[in-house]
Amino acid sequence: MAIQISKFEKLEELLRPHQHSLAPRRWKPRHKSSKPQLHLLLQNSIKELQLIEPGLSSLLGSLVQLKSLLEQIEGVILLKLKRKEEKESVRISALH
What we know:
Layout: H1 2-21, H2 34-95
């Protein structure tokens, strides 16, 4: 029986390092170069934004013009509705 215990103890000792390696570890970057990679990614993103900025600016200008045109159209429609209501009012008054 002593032999079985010593075999068990040896097996337990062999397993201990493996059990330790399975313990959860804090996350650490694999390499110290992760910060420069992030910096490079940010630089590339900024360059891409700078490339599309003129297009976005032009689009914004077009949207402002479109808004102005829609407001003018709305004004014309409201004016026509008002004139139509006035004509209806005059017609109803004439009938009475």
